[in-house]
Amino acid sequence: MAANKSNVVQTNKIPVVLVMVPFPAQGHINQLLQLSTTISATSDIPVHFVTTDTLLHQAKSRFAGAPLTNINFHEFTVPSFLAAPSQNSGKLSGLFQPSAEAAMHLRHPVAELLALLSVTTHRLVLIYDFLSSVTVQDFISLPNVEGYSFQGVSAFMAFTFFWELYGKPNIINDATVEYLPPIDSSFPPEFVEHITRNLKLLNLITGFLYDGCRLLEGKYIDLINSKEMMGPDVKQWALGPFDLLEVTPKKEPSERHKSLKWLDEQSEKSVIYVCFGTSVSISDEQVEELAIGLEKSGKKFIWVLRVADKEALPREEGAKGAKLPDGYEERVKEQGIIIRDWAPQIEILAHSSTGGFLTHCGWNSCMESLTMGVPIAAWPMHCDQPRNSLLITKGLKTGEQIRKRAEEVSVDLWGSVAKGGITRAELESFLLHITRELI
Questions:
Q1: Residue positions annotated with a catalytic role
Q2: How far is residue 87's CA from residue 96's CA, in Å, rounded to a whole number?
Q3: What phi-psi label fits residue 126: left (phi over 0), alpha (psi between -120 and 50 degrees) or beta?
Q4: Alpha-carbon span 347 to 245, nearest angstrom
Q5: 3-state secondary structure of 380
Q6: Helices H, strands E: what count in the chain?
Q7: Do 166 and 199 contact (CB within 8 A), yes or no?
């Protein structure tokens, strides 16, 4: 039985309690941590957060948001199968199976926690990653729980996935869909199986939540509500971008990452930032070609070069990651810096010296780059990334070295989270909905 490291205190019933259940992968956990702090800062609703102990420890250590003191954490231990996969030169085989297995393993401890919490409140509101539908499925047996499926991908990705599932109804006049890569070519077979498991539980939802903004993706959200697809009765809220700048704590100069100190010495918009997220490992051949290209470009760069996170894709003890050409780091020491562990991505993108982002197009990275007004050079690898890159390049046109467009999108996004902005209104609407008849 998994061990729960936090206690639920029995009290008189309170109006609403909110529970967050992310998919047990680092990027997914960070999204719902951001949403948790946003809701906690703008309402009196108690927020509970559930995931594995190892992943939560890492997420907390890297979190760039507001203090997490107001969040009630529930950490569960999962079996050692999380350490089963190994690096495989960037191949997808085995990459996602540990997270999928963990999501299924968490079902029983999460069910017990929800049952315990449900007796403390009049309404238990459950926000769960779509990929964790298998984890929370037992909430349907509780009389006072309603579930909202969080889409950790772009609304464009969600729409195109469901659009194909519904037989590609003739409801969109958008050339972008002509470039859609087949799902089977983007997702490994074991992950397609996990998606299928979760799709069977789609009837559990009360509504969808997105880490996205209606200013950018409103038409795709509206199309999901069309009668040819899910229909107008499905409630949807776009709550992004999560307010990254306001929740970033001020740090003493001595606490700043070395990359930020290096950026302080560079010219405005002169540095290309290169990072492929926490679940991507490029091959040795790709590392060599990219290294040569960066060096020959003569441009300043920050390159986050590492194998995927140990918790996501464990590696052999003592492995040092990708090997660069002999003498490379010495040759480029005046041109760029290479980081082999975690980097403060939000702060790097927000820095005035950062002028571009070479990214795998994971949705977290896309949203952070769009919010900071940094143009994207897209190098998608797998899963939702190829479709996210279509949205960036063909749809929003912020991935073709169009700096002005990237800056315009940034202005729109920050306006959306300000008082009177569309995202702020969406958040207020969602909070009013889940506290309806209880105010």
A1: 28, 129
A2: 12
A3: beta
A4: 9
A5: coil
A6: 18, 12
A7: no
Please name which of 278, 277, 279, 276 lies closest in space to residue 94, comparing C-alpha atoms. 279
For residue 430, the Cα-to-chain-centroid distance in whole angstroms is 20
Average model confidence (pLDDT) across the chain: 87
SS3 316: coil
**Which tokens is 422 given?**
């569309």
The Cα 51–Cα 110 span in angstroms is 9
Tell me whether residue 392 is exposed, middle or buried, using C-beta atoms within 10 angstroms of its C-beta: 0 to 12, 13 to 18, 19 or more.
buried
4 SS3 class: strand
Starting at the edge strand found earlier in the chain, the sheet holding 354-359 runs 336-339, 300-304, 271-275, 354-359, 376-378
CA quadruple 66, 67, 71, 77: dihedral positive or negative?
positive
Cα-flanking dihedrals φ and ψ of residue 151, to 5°? -95, 110
Position 18 pLDDT exceeds 70: yes
CA dist 16 and 45 (Å) reads 6
**Cα torsion for 374, 96, 139, 4, to the nearest 10°?**
-100
Beta-strand ranges (E) seen in 53-204 are: 71-76, 121-129, 145-151
Helix, strand, coil fractions of the chain, as percent rounded to 5: 45, 15, 40
Residue 246 has pLDDT above 70, yes or no: no
pLDDT tens digits along 39-61: 998 999 999 999 999 889 888 88
Rounded to a whole number of angstroms, the distance between the first and last alpha carbons of the chain is 38
Q: Tokens in use for 357?
A: 């982002």
Q: Return the half-sphere exposure (C-beta side, CA atoms, 13 A cut-off) of residue 76.
A: 23
pLDDT at 81: 52
The phi, psi pair for 392, rounded to 5°, reads: -65, -45
- Rounded to an integer, what is the distance from CA 275 to the centroid of its chain? 15
Give percent of the chain with pLDDT exceeding 90. 66
Using DSSP's 3-state secondary structure scheme, residue 400 falls into coil
Give the model's pLDDT for residue 49. 98
Which pTM was predicted? Answer: 0.89
Which has the closest alpha carbon to 176: 206, 147, 156? 156
**Sign (positive/negative) of CA torsion 213, 20, 383, 284?**
positive
User: Read out DSSP for 111-152?
Assistant: HHHHHHHHTTEEEEEEEEEGGGHHHHGGGGGSTTEEEEEEE-
Residues ≥6 apart with Cβ < 8 Å to 408: none
